[in-house]
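Entry 12.
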Amino acid sequence: MYDNIKLSIDVAFDETRRDEFCTRFGLCTKNEKLKIWHNKDEKNLKQNLGVYMHLKNTKLTLEFSLHKVYNYKLFDKQFNYNDFDFKQARKAAGWLDEMFNQYFDIMQAVVKKYEVGINVLTSENPIEYLQELKQINVGTRILRIEEDIRYKEYQQYSTHRDKDKRVIYIFYNKTFEVQSKSKKIDRANVPENILRLEKDNKRLFEKILFSRLFDTDFKKHTIKEYKQRFYNDLVYRETQVKPKDMRQSDFDICKNIIENGLQAVREQYKKDYKEGRTIERTYYRRLQKIERLSKQTDEIKTEISRRAAELNNLIISKLKELTKMTVFYNSMVKTKNEEIGTNENE
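Predicted 3D structure (tokens):
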């Protein structure tokens, strides 16, 4: 579930140690005046499992997709459109720990930001489902879900992204995102209709070390909170359903009253009469009709669409699957630790 992660750690490098580290990990771009070294080019990133490193004096920043680290290690390809659970995330973190342990303990690095996400396979184009999203209710706060205009039309939606937000919820067409970046030879391997749901955590309220992301209690809290937001708190757009015994014309008037208010409808009819678009008799008949229909608006029920209901069920199913996998893995680790007489976490 963990993906794009940013870590920060102080490293006690003297000049010799620093140059050795930069050579080992390809931090070839240097600014001696500002004391900055980084490896921001494709060749060096691939050399280090896709980990971008930025060293300024003794402050080292690492940015990477833990999901891509895992796939790159196993398949020699960087992608994150397949499933990725906590067990795999912990394994990928272990590989990074081995890669850096000669120089520092990455598990003691401070987490600056991280993502928690899942991929769900929809039966139709993800665009059709993204447009059904309305908002996320977090307590008394309403976080509106809107199209992200920085991306291709209808391909990504999110809650507000202003600089004061510590948490952003993101929904996008993962298939489109991957295929738009992949080479033609790789696109055939990308499954159709992947919809991605992410919780982007940045500027955390408390200091969290990298190792804590894999603590059993923290993982349980992560799943619980994710489930709360993307299942219980996620609100879909609703449409009014016409009662069987109501005329379509009356239904349209009722919807107008519900959406704009009775007084606003009165004012519109009055304006039509004053400006000569309706005659007096028609105007008064309209007034009588909307007064009568205003008492029937309670008969009109609302419901989410078939696609919204499908997405809701897919999210529930995927979260149950991940929860079961985590519980099973935790029980296996507990049993193993008991057998060898330890109490270590995964």
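Annotation: The chain has three domains: 1-108, 110-237+305-346, 238-304. The chain is about 45% helix and 25% strand.
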